[in-house]
Please model this.
Amino acid sequence: MSGPHVEFRVDPSGYRHWRLDVDGPVATLTMDVDEDGGLVPGYELKLNSYDLGVDVELYDAVQRLRFEHPEVRAVVVTSGKEKIFCAGANIRMLAASAHAWKVNFCKFTNETRNGIEDATAHSGQTYLAALNGTASGGGYELALACEHIMLVDDRSSTVSLPELPLLGVLPGTGGLTRVTDKRHVRRDRADYFSTRAEGLGGKKAVAWRLVDEAVPRTAWAETVAARARELAARSSRPEGAEGIALTPLEKTRTGTSVAYEHVTAELDRDAGAAEITVAGPAADAPADIAGVHRQGAAFWTLAVTRELDDLILDLRANEPELGTWVIRTSGDARRVLDHDRLLLDARDDWLANEIVLYLKRTLKRLDVTSRSLIALAEPGSCFAGSLLEFALAADRVYQLDGVFEDVDPDADPAAVTVDAMNLGPLPMGNGLTRLETRFLGDGEGLAAVRDAAGKPLEAADAERLGLVTFAPDDIDWDEEVRIAVEERASFSPDALTGLEANYRFPGPETLETKIFGRLTAWQNWIFNRPNASGPEGALRRYGTGRRADFDRKRV
Amino acid sequence: MSGPHVEFRVDPSGYRHWRLDVDGPVATLTMDVDEDGGLVPGYELKLNSYDLGVDVELYDAVQRLRFEHPEVRAVVVTSGKEKIFCAGANIRMLAASAHAWKVNFCKFTNETRNGIEDATAHSGQTYLAALNGTASGGGYELALACEHIMLVDDRSSTVSLPELPLLGVLPGTGGLTRVTDKRHVRRDRADYFSTRAEGLGGKKAVAWRLVDEAVPRTAWAETVAARARELAARSSRPEGAEGIALTPLEKTRTGTSVAYEHVTAELDRDAGAAEITVAGPAADAPADIAGVHRQGAAFWTLAVTRELDDLILDLRANEPELGTWVIRTSGDARRVLDHDRLLLDARDDWLANEIVLYLKRTLKRLDVTSRSLIALAEPGSCFAGSLLEFALAADRVYQLDGVFEDVDPDADPAAVTVDAMNLGPLPMGNGLTRLETRFLGDGEGLAAVRDAAGKPLEAADAERLGLVTFAPDDIDWDEEVRIAVEERASFSPDALTGLEANYRFPGPETLETKIFGRLTAWQNWIFNRPNASGPEGALRRYGTGRRADFDRKRV
Model:
């Protein structure tokens, strides 16, 4: 199957697989998957196994906790089933899925898990995995994304990564990387653990650092509650803060366009491209942070981030043949920068902090999106501060030198503006800002750009400073842009994915970039091999009672 | 084709594709590929394109320069053809090759290029690429491995990475990573460059940092000579040193074994395993470094390293179905440590330095070998210092607790010994020692192991210190080891490759690990996709006059 149309907008009233309970500073996210609630017919979500639909709800819950529940300081993730925490991604779903679907599913799941770690690290909402039964595969990987892992000690519950011995694939959502790089399980033990389908439990799982504690069932509830209270006590979240409602996102989708209030995308199927336009603020920024709280989900930065987040997810899942995203902005750069400044001046305000973190995560989503990104700065655009990041995330940036004489000879020439939002608050997965990444090994170039902060830069200056790739004039613009988009559509989509995944992340690697880079690339390779996905491969033979028939050559 | 039997032992008298000329402190390596000299029938090596055979000679030349020519301080790599430096890996060869062959070929080529960088960084032999004509694809990647790149400025010669636009694959030997992470080409420029099949030359190539200088043909010879002299002047190589001869390696190969003087491998095809045994020194170490020079290639550490290097290459190329390598040692640990100490006490001696560097590179080769590695420490073994590294490189280590009662009840129990060679001189590609990698995030564990340096550690101590994975006794040993090897043979070979590539490299990433990890994994994925290797894929359609027919879905 190549998958149905997927919609990522949900809210708790529509959850089929999760319960979200808030009790003062501690929230509990209970996974209780509806077996018959699969996104696609053809499989049952037994044993709390999940598909993309289950994860869409989890993502929504994590987001709402951050914005709607500032009082929450610790989040307990547990299971509503007896004896099983979560069996991981549903195997029949994986076996029946097209490669692109599997890869996109894993990417989204990874992003949600990174979001859980981001909430723990930067939002004062610490996640605790309360494994009241066995956590295998993706179930254990979900636990690995939590700060503290508790496993019930009952002689049968274990944690495991059975993908290699049972399915001939790798854990797809960061398991290998988190086992060694986050939990510091010794590599030879990690090797043994990952070949042992039944996993490890009890004291051995603790001794090997696979979990933090093993707790007898008799002491389970009280110990989980105590641990949640302890983690909550570490939080810097304010007392008595009031959340804002993440109101339903207005969206109009046709076969040729997706439109929100601030963001639109024209789907050009002939060109294999989506033409995305992001509008700057329609009004001045509120006078102070209290105004941001009053505007809530309507505050421009938050609203536009939510729309972009949804658009990225929608196009990734539903429009795989639109291989190039052309990104434009329109509006008043000054207003963009004013909104940025308001947020950055109030970073100790929980909501300002959350909005900036959400923008950071959304930009990271763009960084790992397997689409060619081309940003176009034209007269009337507002690539400044937070919106400039969308250009800096692009594979190429074109800025018009001058104006379109035929359209508006009196227009102000396009300008781009670097500002504080580009200099720290929005790091990429590699830990560097997009400017630091761009000027890797070129301290002088980076310093020159910093010195130009706050100044609108027309094409010649932006090109000289290295902020844009090309700066064609009116005469060359149309042809140069057209060729870039057409050429992109003529190249191998797979090779472009590999090229971009490498060029977007020069320099240092982190747990996050290793998961999206090295681990994912190996997993995708394995997914493509007959030993996994062929008719006699392990994924297809699983559950048939017949062993996989492997080509034994090591590659 | 799955490839012919490959032999890696060559010497300059047998070169078909390279000339090695030494003129005082400057050597010149001239690539002049014999079109009819392909390793396999079915393609012609036109335009200085290469196959594995060409690279085997290059590897040999780089090694000999280090050991046989201590007087050489700069190495000029250039072409013997008119107007063309090197067209990269031969495309017909790639198109006709099985996946495993392509991957193994790229791995070896990568290792040779890393060796060139290692010589520049640590041996005082700086490589200079003198591109007297166009360098495309792997040809440019060879140049990227050199410290300084000169391109003739003649309005036609360029450097290029045409893999993506022409072949629908990625540059396979580090090109993308070196362009951004070594040469610091801006990522958007790198993107444009890699989509432009014809490449870039002249001043633009310099401005974009793709090459270091563009030199008119009229000034070519003298400028290259001047630059080589300048690079040579920076070297710390001693004056008047005399090289040692890398005498022919004695090797006996049958269908069931490979035997050298110190190293043997039994090829157990039923078990899918190679049983490798490394013998410690048969005699005491020489009294001083002068004795090492006198022994030359017969000095144990160098001899055993050469044999292991050849064995690794042989088994990787010729025995892909032997998926597990079981590594044993036999001999006197004290002698191993004495040899180590002699080398480390004389690190300012060029030969001692070269031997340690060679050992380092050989161990790195093992780290990136796609075979499961299981080390067995039994009575009579000598896993100490340099040889202990082969256990630390393994995915698992088993050490017998006690002795084999039936075999020799009076034997000394197996011991392993950490020493200076494990604490710095042999870093992995990630920049850490194997011990630092093993104890990532566990400073206490690492300190305890350091404190135990020099002491032979029997099984209980070694297990407690975390140096071995399991320490079964006589009663359990055979069964536990047998199950480990059998189990390994039952798993998906592809999934094992992915698992090991991730678990062997926790922690930081470097240019080197990014090339073998992220870049290679993406490349392998692309190589497996119909868009590249299918009947209508770009690799197969190249040169037919028909365009590739791509599945346009982005993954």
Chain A has two domains: 14-233, 253-503. Chain A has a mean pLDDT of 97. Residues 253-503 of chain A form a domain with the 2-enoyl-CoA Hydratase; Chain A, domain 1 fold (CATH 3.90.226.10). Chain A touches chain B through 88 residues (CB under 8 Å).
